[in-house]
Write a structure and sequence with these properties.
By secondary structure, the chain is mainly alpha-helical. The chain is built from 14 helices and no strands. About 80% of the residues lie in helices and about 0% in strands. The model has no long low-confidence stretch (mean pLDDT about 85).
Length: about 290
Amino acid sequence: MKTNNIPDNALVRQGPDRQQLNLIPIILICLSLAYISLIVYIPAINVFYQAFHKGIEPFLANLTNPDFLSAVRITLLLALITVPINTIFGLCAAWSIARHQFPGRTLLLSIIDLPLSISPVVAGLMIMLLYGRQGWFGGWLQERGIDIVFAFPGMALATAFVSMPFVVREVIPVLEETGTDQEEAARTLGASDWQIFWRVTLPNIRWGLMYGVLLTNARAMGEFGAVSVVSGNVANTTQSLPLFVEEAYKQYDTEAAFSAAVLLALLAAVTLVIKEVLESKTKIKDKS
C-alpha cells in the first residue's frame, strides 16, 4: 500500500498557514472600513451633529434664511439650464461616436473627457481668460453690455463644462452593446429616423440615459471649484449652495453652513439610492 510522501512537519504547517490565509480578507475588510469611516462616515456624522446639536428649530430657522433660499434658487436654476443642455449634447455626441467611424473620433472622446481630467479651478480660469474683462472676447462683450464672468451666465458655463461628460460616457457603451440590428430592421420596414430614435433607440438606452442625467444633475448642483472662480460669490446674486456653505463658515455662521451641508448630503444620499435603482434596472435588462 502506497503511503503519502508529504512529510509530517509539512502537514502540521498546513493548519496555521490556512488560518493565516483566512485572516487576510478579514484584515483587508477592517482596513477598508476604517479608511471609509475616517474619510466618509465620521465627517458625515459630524455634519449632521453640528446641524442638529441645538435642536430642530435652529436648523429649520437656518433653512428660511434669505441668503440660503437665494442660494438654493440659483443652484436649482443652474441645474435646470445645464442638465437639459448636456443631455441633448450627450445624446448627439454618443450617437455620433457609437454609430460612426470618422477622423478625429478619438480626439473628440478625449475632449469630452477633459472635464474629468483637469481641475475645476482650471476650468473656471479658462472661462475667465476667454470671457473676462481682459479675455479674448471680454472687450467685445463689455461694449455690448453683456456680462459673462462674475454673473450668472459664467456660472452656467462653468457648470455645463464640468458636468458635460456624464451622459456621453453612460450612453456610448449601451449603444455599442445594443448594436444596429433593431434600427436597421425598423428602417427596412419604412420607419423614419425620428421614429427609429423614439421607438427603438431611446427605449434601449433609457436606463443608461437616466443614469447619465442623474450624475449630471448631481455634479451640477454640487460643483464648487469652477463656479467659485467665475461667480464672484455675491450673496443673493451669484452665490450657489456650495458657495453659501463656504461663505457662511468663513463668517463663523457654522450652524447655517452645516444646515446647508446637510441639504447637500441628503441630495447625495438620494442620488446614491436612485443610482442603485438604475443600476439594478440595467442589470435586469442585460439578463433579459
